[in-house]
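In keeping with the milestone schedule agreed at the kick-off meeting, the structural modelling team has produced records for the first pair of proteins. Each record is given below as a sequence line and a structure-token line. The laboratory manager (R.T.) confirmed that both were archived under the project's standard naming scheme.
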Amino acid sequence: MTEPTIHVPEGYRTTHLRGLWALAGCLVCGGNGEYLVSDRDDTDSTWDCDEPEPWYPQPCDCPWSPPPEVLRALDAADARLRRHRERMREVFDAIGPRQVGGTYWCGYWHRWYLVESIEIRFRDGDLTSPTWSITARWASGDRGTHHTPWNPRCDSTSFPARWPGRAPAPPELRYPTTVSCRWCRSQSAFVRSVHRAFCAR
């Protein structure tokens, strides 16, 4: 991602106009590359309006610009730089708060792991195509390398405060004899009568 070299003539300085350098000692623009003009026909008359007199920027004749092919190369380099920053931001978002030597809780596997290394590479040296991976040592002692993005909804930097237990059984399973349906009560009474008759033998 090497930007093209531009050899600016001596006595010129950069301006806010992209790809233009202005003469530092220009008496018209003062080295800014543009100067202000009024749209009035008679500039000698006094402005009698309540609002400020309108002035508009006009490009000066002193700015210097490199050849078009150099400007195109400069634009391409800027585009690659923006793409590199976007992709690196995505990589850092995927890594999240994880750092080498830190211990983290995996909400998917429900166990903690220690980050031993974080590696960021670029495919074929292209800075716009970064890849990343994390080498972790799990609580069981196993090691593995992965590139699973950080999920703030289930991953954590600390052990969860409370382990979710088993859901309680519904009342109809805990108290099978407590039924409100007339048909169910009759069936339950029939089962109990059969059971008593069988046990009485």
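The second protein of the pair:
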Amino acid sequence: MKEILKHLNWKHILLHFIATWFFIHSFYILSYLHDIEFTEFIIKNRNEMPVFEEVPFDTKRMSDFFMITGVSKFIGLLVAFIISFSISIYRKWFWLNSVLALLIAFLLFKLDLLLWDYLRIVFRFTGGFMPNVILDFLFDGLVMLFLGLLLFFYKKSTQIINYKKHIIPTQSCHSEA
């Protein structure tokens, strides 16, 4: 057990968790692009509850939309884990760090503690300047995907994970008199 704890690297876990967070939400944002017409309807009626009889979409289309957007987060989580695990194996890092990043992300995802409701304002802000819904969601999703990939593959991330403090043991100050 002590040997396992010695190989755990909190910087690895944290950086890969943050990259996984970006992947989860990137896939979620990009999933809205599969049905632009329905996405535009949702945006247009965001603040009001439309009467079911007046909704111009059938229930199958609506359930497909919500199923795809719901599953997209889990797919983003799995893709991020595969990348994280592959990087760990390639760089000869301890593989359990990637598994722990996955478990933490999954647990927070299932408990709805990834703070998306608060951070959405920041990360969905940039696409708001786009002239249409497609570019809005595409830009925001790709920016978040880029940030996740950057955390996984950027040389500085690797250096941060590999950095170890070299602590020089101090000499005993006790002298025998």
